[in-house]
Amino acid sequence: VIVQLLETTILNLVNFPSLIATNASRMVIAARGQFGQRKVYGKSPKCAEFGLRRAQGPDGGLSASKYCMVGGFDAVANVLCGKLTGMPVIGTHAHSFVMSFDSLDEVKDLTVLVNNSENEETCNLLQLVLVKRKMCGWNNTNDGELASFIAYGVAFPNAFLCLIDTYDTIESGLKNFIVVALALKECGYTSRGIRLDSGDLAQLSIACQEEFIRVAKLYNQGWLKDCDVVASNDINEKTLHELNERGHGITSFGIGTNLVTCQAQPALGCVFKLVQFDGQPRIKLSNDIEKVLIPGEKRAFRLYGGGSSKPLVDLMICADEDAPQEGQEVKYRDPFTQNDAKRIIPTQVEEILHTLWSKGKVLMSEDMYSLTKARERCMNSIQNLDQNLLLEDKEKYPVCVSEKLHADLYRLWESKKDSSSKRNT
Asked: What pLDDT, on a 0 to 100 scale, did the predictor assign at position 310?
């Protein structure tokens, strides 16, 4: 009875987190490669969750923020999630913040504390910015935007990262960021970078990177070349692949709607079925072969081999069978065909199914429910996968059963079909 009552709860706790973590991991692979091998201006691109505004309510938003980290995301924009979990929090201001400023007079009295100053010296940031603006010869940028950047720099001098596409991305936003960043550097602060949220992200990101390099060389400000170019604007897995094909200068992706709502597949179809009751195996039959249940209590193993330490097959066996061993031949079969058994000699065997709760007691260790440990397992597993499994026209990864479990499956299957036929006649 207890197990049946838990069905909805367990499926709710498994389906959505698994969906988000899977979606996140696919985006991470698209952004920086299976092994983190893709570099953009010397950096491995990062992924940050930007989805709270579009998530399915506050609960869905918090869950999405948590579980995208398992899939390999590097930071979240959800401040509550960061507070509750200790995850890195990242973000910028909004367009509305930029639009709320109209004149440089609004920031004429703002000062910033000079970093590492013994006497807590302060600096009028506007005055210093105007010096840098004149030095660069950029006197025609938007004043309201520049004022907003100055105000933001005073508030967050250690995390200065500006959204630059409110008016003119290259001719105003980028230039305004650079002059404020140069002024903050003179006060002892190194700026983070810029964010693009519209336009041709590939072209604009390269233009920003090239301007950072030019100004860094011109004024001997090498740190500018390390500024991040963050891109958002309805990014999904397909967008990431297209950007890679074109070439771009994006070092960090802010991904929101398509991550937290998982538009590519809005729901995951995990199911909860009874496989054994009172020591006796149970089976569910169906005209759809993929819905036929594999009966009985089982153990599951991942078998590695082939001289490359890659997983070759996942194997389910009966709970009372001997576990497969490294260096010893293992026979396995497709659960839903009568084809001959295949053979493998694994170089490594990993048990992948663990009992978390039994007879009213929680059996899992702290490592098993740590998001950090789950993230590590996920990243390691992805790096171990055969690259062919990650292609769009991917191979099907084999999940098979032992010969004993195969025989038990078909014996119970035939007995249930026979009993059904007799009742129908």
From this structure: 83
